[in-house]
Amino acid sequence: MENNLINSYMDFLSKGKTERECCRLIVELAKSKGYKNITEVKKLKAGDKVYAVKFGKAVALFNIGSEDLENGMNILGAHIDSPRLDVKQNPLYEKQGCVYLNTHYYGGIKKYQWVTLPLAIHGVVCKKDGTAVQIVIGEKEEDPVFCIGDILPHLAQKQMKESAAEFIPGESLDIIFGSGILKKEKSETEDEKSDEKSEEKKLKLPPEGKKKILALLKEQYDITEEDFTSAELEIVPAGKARYLGLDKSMILAYGQDDRSCAFTSAMALFESPCGKRTSCCVCVDKEEIGSVGATGMASHFFENVIAEVLNSTGEYSELKLKRCLNNSLMLSSDVNAAFDPQHGELYDNQNASYLGGGIVFNKYTGSRGKSGASDASPEFIALLRKLLDENKVKYQMAELGKVDQGGGGTIAYLAAKYGMFVLDAGVAVLSMHAPWEVTSVFDINETYKAYKIFLTIEDKLEIL
To answer: For 39-92, what is each residue's pLDDT tens digit?
Structure first.
């Protein structure tokens, strides 16, 4: 199972580079395991397996248990969005021989890490006739790729004096999308010809530059320049997930924050039987920018879906919905920063997570004075320790880094507001938020095992 899990995980990372693609892959896996769209099921009973999708970018899956839902659920919650570049709505322009797509970065990135990399375009273009064109360019061997240019060292004296946060401005993260052929501009008068010695020779991009690109877009995808206004196109690193290290003990891939936890959470649910308590896996969007919008955890998506589940089991009432949420247990399946030996001064060594250390439990996230943290209950942590020790699953307790170095957040606080027990639990990631992130093969397997064990908890009263 371990080798199969890792192979499937790497395939998932290679194919799922956007939240839409991840959602689609998870639903395809769910259907192959017998899950049905909740809209197709009138009456739910113990043993049923259903899912619900919001705008193709968030998904919730349920294994219906034999116990009343008001007694709570066991929930694995992850996010499937990752830092990237988004194509703007009026993006296409030409400039001195190059055709560009204008972008806006998404999430917390170091902008300089994105220049001169081979990049791919993934997304959807929605047309006025109601059709949607799926776009993936840059992943096949025969595909072209794209990149962001940078200044050569010989001319970068000024750039090299600027801070890392400034020397690549956000407005410079435009991808090279094509090119034209420069030619000398013809003078219209003899006077202009005589001025050539005092002026630089004028160059201009002939109409074939941008027009050529638009013609190719029309020919290959049947889209026009105006269709960009209703498109959702994401720029991501081109290439597949790969083993890292001579011993193949690690994985190098884009988007492992937080798809490492989303994949293992979904697989843990798929491989778990329906038991006493209802089990759930929810994968949401927009965590990297505050969990906002209709597909983020801060929306009512999850709450509304649970209401639909309660209604389909014949149990719905507002009080039962509140009790269900209050009585639930949740692992906020999210990654933690792996200790980086090259920058060890940023970490509290005794409270850091390490590659190969197993699943990471993070009692609180937030920044500095725990700002934005949900701060998990020790009773819940104790139960999880007991279960993992009994099943010989390796785990580690950690924080993100030293107290005053910064911090981060997860969706945990958004679930904790309902009164449920919540703990951040996931994979240690090296080079987090970089275009290519690093995880441990061992940690992926241990995280999957830990999630499966969590789903076996039968009674919230065990920890009270």
So the answer is: 999 999 999 999 999 999 999 999 999 999 999 999 999 999 999 999 999 999
Instruction: Please check whether residue 308 is in contact with residue 40, taking contact to mean a CB–CB distance below 8 angstroms.
Output: no
H/E run at residue 11: helix 2-15
pLDDT at 405: 80
Enter the tokens of residue 410: 């997860």
Q: Report the 3 state secondary structure along 55-101.
A: CCCEEEEEECCCCCHHHCEEEEEEECCCCEEEEEEEEEEEECCEEEE
Q: Are 403 and 368 in contact (CB under 8 A)?
A: yes
Q: Beta partners for 74?
A: 279, 329
Looking at residue 105, its amino acid is Y
- What tokens appear for 334 in the block? 């999210």
> What is the amino acid identity at position 71?
N
Look-up of token digits 């699953």: 393
Q: How far apart are CA 277 and CA 279, in angstroms?
A: 6
Q: How far apart are CA 362 and CA 400, in angstroms?
A: 8
What is the C-alpha separation between 440 and 431, in angstroms, rounded? 12
- Those residues whose C-beta lies under 8 Å from the C-beta of residue 155, and which sit 6 or more positions away, are none
Other C-beta atoms lying within 10 Å of the C-beta of residue 139:
17
- The DSSP bridge partners found for residue 408 are 366
Q: Which of 213, 222, 279, 271 is nearest to 74 (CA)?
A: 279
Phi and psi of 108, rounded to 5°? -85, 105
